[in-house]
């Protein structure tokens, strides 16, 4: 229905306001009526006065509004400072810690047998003093909460390098590795003074063919990340820009001939120009890597051929890398040994 | 003033058709409960019922007693907001 156009004059305005107020009154009356129906029904059905009882009970359950109490009138941290005597070890334990302590103390909880077994294992490996046992008990009290476990681990980090707890968290990380490697691994990974010189070459090789093996500067720990064949992007190839001199050069020189165009002479200079135009960016990185890699053991073997051949080698090295990771790694560490 | 009554009729029709009336009703109910008006009114009802006797109370009794008090007890903020919304609706759809 189309509205007629009305110019807004004074009387019209008041008319509009009256209309607005009328609509409002209608709405309020509606709400009141609704309430009346609700109450009347409650009365007739008998549930209107259900929340009222005799005066005595009303006083008893009145809402409490005092500081230190909740609305029921109870003190909420009443048991915070109380201590209970353990019937087993006769120690005084804080009330909130009492139940977990009893669990460990009586040897009846879920974790208590696990801890006991672990403790036996550590006791067999290393001889421990009496005081250690007691500290471990406190440590184990925090077993169930991961955050406390982390804190406890940090505190005792100097004390217990070979504790089974460390191997437990590492085992989760190394789940996908073979068990043989991991059993070997966790003996080495958290020794502060790990160095590859102390291990036999065979062990090093087996270690490094399956794991990353980089020793962190901060923690002096060996990285246990499993090697992924194509994980490294071409960009982060600085470590691999240190080619193992003899093997890699021989590899690449053999593969080099397809790169040289038939019209050019077979000199390395021509192929350098060729690769230059194609990938200037990578050439720069390659030569950087090579020059910095000179410091490593292999630098001496690269001097033959001059700079142009060096850059030539660098570029194909990037292409070839995904195919020959393992041999080059073991050969690098062969050189180290 | 048939023009006016026609206008009123059409405004009311529009309010209902567009669902605005329902929305306003719900809004009012929510606001009244929130501000404690409903509990106040219920307490007053209790008095009326105790006065008239639990078994003989009728709807009429309640309505007659409650409605004027209810109208008076609506808080100003709620009243202003509702009037605002109604005016806005009229401004948008009535001219």
From TrEMBL, chain A:
GO terms for biological process: chromatin organization; regulation of transcription by RNA polymerase II. Gene3D superfamilies: 6.10.140.1270, Classic Zinc Finger (3.30.160.60). A zinc finger (SGF11-type) spans 84-105. Residues 116-128, 260-274 have a biased composition (Polar residues). Keywords: Activator, Chromatin regulator, Metal-binding, Nucleus, Transcription, Transcription regulation, Zinc, Zinc-finger. Residues 116-178, 255-337 are annotated as: Disordered. Residues 291-307 have a biased composition (Gly residues). Residues 132-141 have a biased composition (Acidic residues). GO terms for molecular function: transcription coactivator activity; zinc ion binding. One of its GO terms (cellular component) is DUBm complex. It holds the Pfam family Sgf11. Its main location: nucleus. It comes from the Eukaryota. Component of some SAGA transcription coactivator-HAT complexes. Within the SAGA complex, participates to a subcomplex of SAGA called the DUB module (deubiquitination module). Component of the transcription regulatory histone acetylation (HAT) complex SAGA, a multiprotein complex that activates transcription by remodeling chromatin and mediating histone acetylation and deubiquitination. Within the SAGA complex, participates in a subcomplex that specifically deubiquitinates histone H2B. The SAGA complex is recruited to specific gene promoters by activators, where it is required for transcription. PANTHER family: ATAXIN-7-LIKE PROTEIN 3. The C-terminal SGF11-type zinc-finger domain forms part of the 'catalytic lobe' of the SAGA deubiquitination module. Belongs to the SGF11 family. This is Ataxin-7-like protein 3.
TrEMBL record, chain B:
One of its GO terms (cellular component) is transcription export complex 2. InterPro entries: TF_ENY2 (IPR018783), TF_EnY2_sf (IPR038212). Its main location: nucleus. It is found in: Nucleus, Nucleoplasm. One of its GO terms (biological process) is transcription elongation by RNA polymerase II. GO terms for molecular function: transcription coactivator activity. The keyword Cell wall biogenesis/degradation does not apply. Keywords: Activator, Chromatin regulator, mRNA transport, Nucleus, Protein transport, Transcription, Transcription regulation, Translocation, Transport. HAMAP family: ENY2_Sus1. Component of the nuclear pore complex (NPC)-associated TREX-2 complex (transcription and export complex 2). Component of the SAGA transcription coactivator-HAT complex. Within the SAGA complex, participates in a subcomplex of SAGA called the DUB module (deubiquitination module). Belongs to the ENY2 family. Involved in mRNA export coupled transcription activation by association with both the TREX-2 and the SAGA complexes. The transcription regulatory histone acetylation (HAT) complex SAGA is a multiprotein complex that activates transcription by remodeling chromatin and mediating histone acetylation and deubiquitination. Within the SAGA complex, participates to a subcomplex that specifically deubiquitinates histones. The SAGA complex is recruited to specific gene promoters by activators, where it is required for transcription. Involved in mRNA export coupled transcription activation by association with both the TREX-2 and the SAGA complexes. The transcription regulatory histone acetylation (HAT) complex SAGA is a multiprotein complex that activates transcription by remodeling chromatin and mediating histone acetylation and deubiquitination. Within the SAGA complex, participates in a subcomplex that specifically deubiquitinates histones. The SAGA complex is recruited to specific gene promoters by activators, where it is required for transcription. PANTHER family: ENHANCER OF YELLOW 2 TRANSCRIPTION FACTOR. This is Transcription and mRNA export factor ENY2. The lineage of its organism: Eukaryota, Metazoa, Chordata, Craniata, Vertebrata. The gene is eny2.
């Amino acid at each position: 229905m189309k509205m007629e156009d009305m110019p807004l004059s004074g009387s019209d305005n008041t008319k509009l306001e009256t209309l607005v107020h009328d609509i409002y009154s209608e709405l309020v009356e509606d709400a009141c009526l609704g309430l009346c129906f609700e109450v009347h029904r409650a009365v007739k059905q008998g549930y209107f006065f259900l929340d009222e009882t005799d005066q005595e009970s009303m006083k008893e359950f009145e809402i409490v509004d005092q500081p230190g109490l909740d609305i029921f009138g109870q003190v909420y941290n009443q048991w915070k400072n109380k201590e209970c005597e353990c019937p087993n070890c006769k120690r005084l334990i804080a009330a909130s810690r009492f139940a977990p302590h009893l669990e460990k103390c009586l040897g009846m909880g879920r974790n208590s047998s696990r801890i006991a077994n672990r403790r036996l294992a550590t006791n067999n490996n290393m001889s421990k003093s009496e005081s250690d046992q007691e500290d471990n008990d406190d440590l184990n009290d925090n077993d169930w909460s991961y955050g406390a476990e982390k804190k406890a681990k940090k505190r005792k980090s100097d004390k217990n390098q070979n504790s089974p707890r460390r191997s437990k968290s590492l085992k989760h990380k190394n789940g996908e590795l073979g068990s043989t490697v991991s059993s070997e691994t966790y003996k080495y990974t958290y020794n502060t003074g790990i160095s590859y010189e102390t291990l036999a070459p065979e062990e090093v090789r087996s270690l490094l063919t399956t794991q990353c093996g980089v020793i962190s500067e901060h923690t002096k720990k060996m990285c246990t990340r499993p090697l992924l064949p194509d994980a490294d992007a071409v960009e982060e190839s600085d470590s691999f820009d240190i080619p193992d001199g003899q093997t890699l050069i021989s590899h690449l020189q053999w593969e080099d001939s397809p790169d040289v165009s038939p019209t050019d002479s077979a000199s390395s200079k021509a192929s350098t120009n060729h690769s230059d135009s194609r990938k200037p960016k990578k050439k720069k990185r390659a030569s950087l890597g090579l020059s910095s890699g000179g410091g490593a053991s292999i630098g001496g073997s690269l001097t033959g051929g001059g700079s142009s051949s060096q850059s030539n080698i660098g570029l194909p090295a990037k292409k070839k890398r995904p195919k020959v990771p393992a041999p080059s790694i073991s050969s690098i560490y062969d050189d180290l040994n | 003033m048939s023009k006016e009554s026609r206008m009123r009729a059409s405004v009311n029709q529009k309010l209902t058709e567009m669902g605005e009336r329902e929305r306003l009703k719900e809004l009012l109910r929510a606001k009244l409960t929130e501000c404690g008006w409903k509990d106040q009114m219920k307490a007053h009802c209790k008095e009326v019922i105790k006065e008239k006797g639990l078994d003989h109370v009728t709807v009429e009794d309640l309505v007659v007693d409650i409605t004027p008090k209810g109208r008076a007890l609506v808080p100003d903020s709620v009243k202003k907001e509702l009037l605002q919304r109604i005016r806005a609706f009229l401004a948008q759809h009535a001219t």
